[in-house]
Amino acid sequence: MKRLIAALGALCVLTACASNDATAPEAPTATSAGAVPAGEPDVNGDGKVVIGVLSPGDINDKGYYQSFVDSAAAFATSQGWTVIKRGSVPTAEALAAARALCQQKVDLVALGAADLKDAIPASEEPVCAKTAWYVPSSGNVAQTPRIVLSADDPRQTMLAAGYATGLLLRARGGTSAGFVTGVEADYSVLAAKAYKAGIRTVVPDATLVTTYTGDFNDSAKAKEAVQAQMSQGVKAVYPYLGGATDAATAQANTGGVITLTPGTDRCASTSPTFDISVLFSPGDYFAAALQDFAKGKLAMGVTRVWQMGVDPYPTVKLCKGTAEQSQKLTAYMAGIGSKKIDVVADVDRLGS
């Protein structure tokens, strides 16, 4: 199950998985609470900056786990930093692996997924006294003074994804969209609801056909679901999937319908092709957090809630939209960030 959700960009496990009536927490700025470790980013004061990354999965999987490490490596290289990385860490070895990183004098320990939460007690031990900690948020990870938790509100992302879809649907005269996902769980139901609400913000009479295949990675089931939805006349399909994303999107491409990405920027992809990139990958959040770390502004003891329209991520991008459409989308996301748009109210009002 952990790989299944990781393939989704970890919307639930690696971000704040919200229930339908949950209220998103206020987003602190990086220094509005908690404490910035002295000397950050050279937390241990040895004259160099070293980032240590622990991942529960294969860091060469060409998917989520690799993207998290690649985000760290890309930024670290630009700063002249060093990255020490270890993949496929068993949960039972998380604590020992974290201690081993600290013994190598890393300045920041980053967990690639909340699966490794058992490593967190090391942050309170003498061996890790001069380290900062970055931990993807989950409901079962407690906030402590020595770590920064990273979270988002998935309703913001899905509402904006729906709004972007609505802009393209309206231009094509379409009123029906599809949503293909895996298991029917609280977070996937909420995602579909918010997506529908976003579409209806632009196309008030729009309908959404939602299909739960039961498996985020089964390409055959995903293709079948997409074809069935196209047969019902949908003009857009959101493959909110993991390993089955490309197969589902390729099937949607055969019908010329609007397609979206589940977490990453793939506007440059030619096989399959996407019309909208919905960016909420934890690797993107980590890269943005490293920018704060470089500036000495990444505080510990807080939950860093990434806000659409305020932070670089989450965000939504039209791959080939018109200038007017892109401007409208940017303004809409800014409205979410300024709270001019009441996300909770709009999802409840328009998503039912």
TrEMBL record:
Residues passing through the membrane, by range: none
Signal peptide: 1-18
Chief location bin: membrane
Keywords for this protein: Cell membrane, Lipoprotein, Membrane, Signal
Gene3D superfamilies: 3.40.50.2300
Pfam families, A to Z: Bmp
Membrane topology, from the record: Lipid-anchor
Subcellular compartments: Cell membrane
SUPFAM superfamilies: Periplasmic binding protein-like I
Domain ABC transporter substrate-binding protein PnrA-like: 48-309
Protein family per UniProt: Belongs to the BMP lipoprotein family.
Cross-referenced PANTHER family: ABC TRANSPORTER GUANOSINE-BINDING PROTEIN NUPN, TRANSCRIPTIONAL ACTIVATOR PROTEIN MED
Protein known as: ABC transporter substrate-binding protein PnrA-like domain-containing protein
